[in-house]
Amino acid sequence: MSTPELGLPMVVPAPDLPARVRIYEVGARDGLQNEKATVPTEVKAEFVRRLADSGLTTIEATSFVHPKWVPQLADAEQLFPLVSDLGRSSGVHLPVLVPNERGLDRALALGARHVALFASATESFAKANLNRTVDESLAMFEPVVSRAKADKVHVRSYISMCFGDPWEGPVPIHQVVGVCKALMDMGCDELSLGDTIGVATPGHVQTLLAELNEEGVPTSALGVHFHDTYGQALTNTLAALQHGVTTVDASAGGLGGCPYAKSATGNLATEDLVWMLQGLGIDTGVDLARLTATSVWMAERLGRPSPSRTVKALSHKE
Q1: 14-37 exposure pattern, b = at least 16 Cβ within 10 A, e = fewer
Q2: What is the pLDDT of residues 119-148, one digit of tens each?
């Protein structure tokens, strides 16, 4: 008998936490883009559908980055039409990653209504990931955001290296705030604060969030994206929730990393996040059993076990 059937986790709410959290599921994009083997398009589509069936309502579907840079997602044009009906029939949001105006063109041509950019808080990562300086990358994003907003498309921006950089070390908080403000000023609807190499700790998280608020960036526009390199992802998530953040990025089964920062390990596993939130009495709308089954299914297709501790515990697989 699995622990949910025994009524576990026991629900014990903590004070001053949100009543509901939106999980921004990134496994189908951020997770699969880091796989050595290319996953067949039909398997990706089935993965997205199973994630939606588990109750997730925001599922990042794919990336319209040039196939040369992310060959695992070269099938974006083939994949998106296979899942786009979820937005019409089930109200599921299917954001897609776009790097520039060409990526935006490709996404809009297929009817995407939610797009995401990927910015950097540091010069080293901007150079490695975008082959531009931070200022040059922001200049590249301006027409993308302008055109998307003119077409009433929702725009999110990821900001990588908000807490530490593998080349530069600690990242000054004011530096992160400056990039965030620039993105908000150009019209982004939402920002995702990325701990790309997993070095954040709770005090750092809350201080960055407070500084962003001081500079006029509202908590309602912020999401958090933690990696579990040092086992801090859930702890940092709780710190963000205590500050009032209600959007948390996570990856089913803990898939993912970062192809341009080799010290980045997997994302926060969605199942581990849901287990914690259920115990806190925070609503997510997610059926944990169905989600776990989906991650087990995908792990079988990838030929390796899921790193999620909750998946291992609930599926009795070590």
Answers
A1: eeebbeebbbbbbbbbbbbbbeee
A2: 999 999 999 988 999 999 999 999 999 999
Provide the 10 A C-beta neighbour count for residue 157: 24
Active site residue 180: no
Q: Enter the tokens of residue 97.
A: 């990653």
Would you call the peptide bond into 67 cis, given omega within 30 degrees of 0 as the criterion?
Answer: no
For residue 33, the SS3 value is: helix
Q: Which tokens hold the place of 183?
A: 């993105």
- Residues facing 227 on adjacent strands: 267
Task: Measure the CA–CA gap between 36 and 65, rounded to whole angstroms.
Answer: 17
pLDDT in tens, 5-25: 778 999 999 999 999 999 999
Question: 269 forms bridges with which residues in the sheet?
Answer: 251
The runs of H, that is alpha helices, within the chain are 41-53, 76-83, 85-89, 101-109, 123-130, 134-150, 173-185, 202-214, 233-243, 270-279, 288-302, 309-315
Q: Which of 162, 180, 188, 258 is catalytic?
A: 258
Count CA atoms within 13 Å of residue 136 on its CB side. 10
With beta carbons less than 8 A apart as the criterion, state whether 115 and 153 touch: yes
- In degrees and rounded to multiples of 5, residue 247 shows phi and psi of -120, 125
Please tell me whether residue 47 adopts helix, strand or coil conformation: helix
Tens-digit pLDDT profile for residues 81-95: 999 999 887 889 999
Tens-place pLDDT, residues 24-36? 999 999 999 888 8
3-state secondary structure of 269: strand
Q: What CA–CA distance (Å, rounded) separates 228 from 132?
A: 28
pTM above 0.90, yes or no: yes
